[in-house]
Amino acid sequence: MGDLYTTINTASTIFANNILSKPEFFIGILVFIGYMLLGKPIYEAFGGFIKAAVGMMIWNVGAGGLVSTFRPILAGLNDRFQLNAAVIDPYFGLNAASEAIKMIGMSLSWTMISLMVGFGWNILLVLLRKYTKLRTLFLTGHIMIQQATTCTWIVFCAIPELRNFSGALWIGLLVGTYWSVFSNLTVEPTEELTENAGFAIGHQQMFWVWLTSKIAHKFGSPDSSVENVKMPKWLTVFNDNVIATGTLMLIFFGTIMAILGEPYMRSIDKAGFPATLAFATYILAKSLSFSVYLFILISGVRMFVSELTESFRGISEKILPGALPAVDCAATYGFSSPNTVLFGFIFGCIGQFIAIAGLFIFKAPIMIITGFVPVFFDNATVAVFANKFGGARAAAILPFCTGITQVMGGAIAAWYFELYKYGGWHGNIDWDTLWPAIGFIMKNLSIPGLILVIVMMLLIPQLQYRRSTNKEQYFRVTDEGGL
Asked: Model pTM greater than 0.90?
């Protein structure tokens, strides 16, 4: 057993360090394999690898720029006002979960083993789609790492007797089932939004996307979409996405930096805020940089998603016929009005700020600090789907409610799983709603509870298939999606 464990651990570490921790290569290899399975010349497969990897790297530049620019400002709020707080952000959550795992004497290698088991389990469930009714392969590598790490800590925290090799296997089955089942839930709403573009959502708000598609019509009509919102003449300038994004960033982040003050900003950003630069100029440049990174991000996503969608036709036809790739939520942004993304961000922010004020007023034991990734990507995605199925009114109300839920659920989860001690929680909406419930069941029912959760999740696609009005179409979305 010891040699087997060592071999598996070594293989897992090599694969994780060189492929899974480098999502651009992970995606590029999948594109290469897909092109080869399609029978394309090797130079075209190589070209697909390059374009997918470069697109992903461009996306990483945009996402990294957004996060790295925003994170010091949040940390400054925490430091300046001495709040005992947790940042609801998947990167802060990743660090917090990693520290917690190490504090109980466990290696992070368990996380990598769980990740590989989860990915293999996802493939197996799709191969057995005739029985499982599952059609989607989760391909968002960096999200898989974040989620496998947080899931590992949740299980270790809830069921201490699983802090061993069998625990890693159980965690892999748990997180792999989540990837398979909840990305599968997004197939129909995504196909309707994108007019059969041929992909599903593989991100952090899959349950919320499905829920939004089901309830959005109760809040408004799709005919009155964000695109049709009539604005005062002077506001029509904001129909230009560059102007709208830049202005919003200036208002939100300019205000925060002004509150933190010039001396403090100089102390935490010595490289970016030289003595010769005026505070007003610094605020303007820093705020507008968010717009720059946003457009870089969108450009990268469009590039790698187009290659992935084309190449996945080969994987789907030869290895996983009938399957769809589950990719980053930002891939849907190009299928809605650009201002819908901002719509969701604005109302999500308002919801989060009101909820945070509530925590402060009522002296909650855990204070939450807004993280950019959940407040932007979760709420923008919710707004895109809400606008499709319920129009502008739904695109305002549902992100607002999501923002409140992110804060309240994040505070409960950070306290319940004790990650507030390490300053962070995963923060995305599925991890503020679905996963605290899963953790509660496991903490009270132990291993039987974990098995119960997996079985309950696997029943969802059975119900989804049973309620499908066109069962022949259920497995044919791939063909119509052009994969």
From this structure: no
